[in-house]
């Protein structure tokens, strides 16, 4: 039986719940949020939607104990509107949320895979892993997955090709020190310094284009949801299946003694083997800088936890 829990039912949590039900990716879905009326309303809405489906998902509300035998727990709490004031404005708020939910998740006996969407993603993922006391390979953040997708799309548009023709990754820290690792980027196997489909691609302009996609989405909607949910669904399918998926996710990287967004193979056990690609020295130095910044944020979270004890 495929069982998934979602904690936090904002824009992303609600859309994810809908898509899991509508695409028959889950048999039991546990929904948890601080707003009881929201959860009850969402259940009614999803059950109404199931009248058009030939499949059936059992929906369980506000029950941490039901997470005991869940395969995957998605943490999606947060308030993206805070980002209008400060880039890392969600750090303290979401750290507090981790301290509130972690004891209840631990008490349930949950031992599955955690996929964290909450920001700042790498630091909150690291804090979740510490508070839940799960092996690092089982606690993963979405990290720079969407940043990587935007970068590939920017390259593809400039080269007038499909993004499926582009490989490469963004490392570091989502909503922080992002490293567009151009050393890893190829188009149909060609490096970016070559003429690609008759185009000479400007790396600075490519980065601007990728960042503008994020700006347009946030400016117009106030949040990112569709791309995040689509990639999380891909990760869920991989974990519940027998395949592998390469993505730049927030993982524990021993090389940096902490969590950082790094290209990795995901599989049914969670984190598989990191993809150890050769970076330019300046890129490697930037990843270390990002890892240090994440560690500083984690220290703030840890101190906040002691203050509240």
TrEMBL record:
<dbReference type="InterPro" id="IPR036291">
    <property type="entry name" value="NAD(P)-bd_dom_sf"/>
</dbReference>
<dbReference type="InterPro" id="IPR015955">
    <property type="entry name" value="Lactate_DH/Glyco_Ohase_4_C"/>
</dbReference>
<protein>
    <submittedName>
        <fullName>NAD-binding protein</fullName>
    </submittedName>
</protein>
<dbReference type="InterPro" id="IPR001236">
    <property type="entry name" value="Lactate/malate_DH_N"/>
</dbReference>
<dbReference type="Pfam" id="PF00056">
    <property type="entry name" value="Ldh_1_N"/>
</dbReference>
<dbReference type="InterPro" id="IPR001557">
    <property type="entry name" value="L-lactate/malate_DH"/>
</dbReference>
<feature type="domain" description="Lactate/malate dehydrogenase N-terminal">
    <location>
        <begin position="3"/>
        <end position="141"/>
    </location>
</feature>
């Amino acid at each position: 039986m495929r069982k998934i829990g979602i904690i936090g039912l904002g824009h992303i949590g609600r859309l994810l719940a809908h898509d899991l039900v509508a695409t028959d990716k889950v048999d039991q879905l546990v929904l948890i949020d601080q707003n009881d009326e929201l959860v009850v309303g969402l259940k009614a809405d999803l059950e109404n939607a199931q009248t058009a489906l030939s499949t059936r998902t059992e929906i369980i509300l506000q029950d941490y104990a039901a997470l005991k035998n869940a395969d995957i727990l998605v943490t999606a709490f947060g308030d993206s509107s805070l980002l209008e004031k400060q880039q890392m404005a969600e750090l303290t708020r979401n750290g507090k949320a981790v301290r509130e939910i972690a004891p209840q998740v631990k008490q349930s006996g949950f031992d599955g895979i955690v996929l964290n969407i909450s920001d700042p993603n790498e630091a909150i993922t690291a804090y979740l892993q510490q508070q839940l006391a799960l092996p690092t390979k089982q606690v993963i953040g979405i990290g720079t997955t969407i940043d990587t997708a935007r970068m590939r799309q920017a390259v593809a548009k400039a080269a007038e090709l499909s993004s499926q023709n582009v490989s490469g990754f963004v490392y570091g820290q989502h909503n922080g020190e992002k490293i567009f690792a151009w050393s890893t980027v190829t188009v149909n196997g060609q490096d970016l310094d070559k003429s690609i489909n008759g185009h000479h691609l400007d790396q600075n302009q490519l980065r601007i284009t990728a960042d503008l996609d994020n700006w347009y989405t946030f400016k117009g909607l106030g949040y990112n949801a569709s791309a995040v949910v689509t990639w999380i669904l891909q990760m869920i399918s991989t974990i519940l299946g027998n395949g592998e998926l390469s993505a730049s996710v927030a993982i524990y990287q021993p090389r940096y003694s902490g969590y950082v967004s790094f290209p990795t193979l995901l599989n049914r056990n969670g984190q598989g083997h990191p993809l150890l690609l050769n970076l330019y020295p300046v890129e490697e130095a930037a990843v270390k800088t990002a890892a240090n910044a994440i560690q500083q944020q984690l220290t703030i979270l840890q101190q906040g936890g002691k203050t509240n004890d």
